[in-house]
Queue: 3 jobs
Job 1
Amino acid sequence: IDILVDLGCGSAAAKAWGLPVEGCSASEPQRIVDALSEGKLVVALMTKGHFTSSGHFIVLRGVENEQILVADPASTTRSQKAWDLSIILNEASKSAAAGGPFWIIG
């Protein structure tokens, strides 16, 4: 997954690696939770807020006690914390293309 984030992942990068991928909007929170509960990963394009001062990809990696676990390549600290889904949804890019700002991998 690190390579997907490094490449500026969207659906094209995941597909190039032969991974099934589906775009998902911020208006589909249950779809994100369901995918994570099924063991899938979700790549998220974030804007200014808790995760970045401009723009940044993170990977949503699971759900624990109704909180979202993330893998943030820019911060071990943020990666070790569980997050409210509402923060992630509110700070996700509003202008992502290719079906984003979330991409369900797997």
Job 2
Amino acid sequence: LPDRRVVAAPFAPSVVVDHRVDVTITEATRQTDGTVLVEARFALMGPKGETLVQQRSSHRAKVAVAGSGGAVTGANEALAGLSRDIADALRALPPPAQEKPDGSVR
């Protein structure tokens, strides 16, 4: 999302955010077939904390190299899939309302 400003939590109370992303990784393990599975839930929250989107995400990556290095590479690939799911969900949201200097919304 190159057109968006991203801030990492925790952030100062003075920072206004349009959307917050809450992610829970429910599984990140190497499977018996040699793949790495990453399963997660994520929610996109609005500026007042309201839930706008809730989704589950599951990505499996083949491991090309045996050992822990291959597992890490596979986990990175699966996490990249989760990141794409979150980015797609953010792109699907309507643009946030912008407040004018007089306090009204455009």
Job 3
Amino acid sequence: PAMLRPGRIDMKLHMGPLNNNLLNEFVKRLVGDLAPESAISEFVQGVEDSKVIYTPAQIQGYLLDNREDFGKALSQKDGFKNYLVNQNKFTVDHLTSLEDDDSIEEI
């Protein structure tokens, strides 16, 4: 049966948001030298200050969608939050008021 076949995943691993240091390193690796260090730091602090619940894949998607101008994407105050709202059809309240055990509902 499929459930007993080698290579099946039988463990759940929670992967939450990155802390500031990891997020900073992650963004640096994605944008390389194409954006100034100050823009990366500002973006990381803005994500942290916004209290938005996100995944690393969403950060990567936002940056890839804005790869023509990383500096501009990183400097937009609410750019990432607006990206999440537009991509996922969530309200801002959904993004900022979730408890650990709550699930996000699409609207």
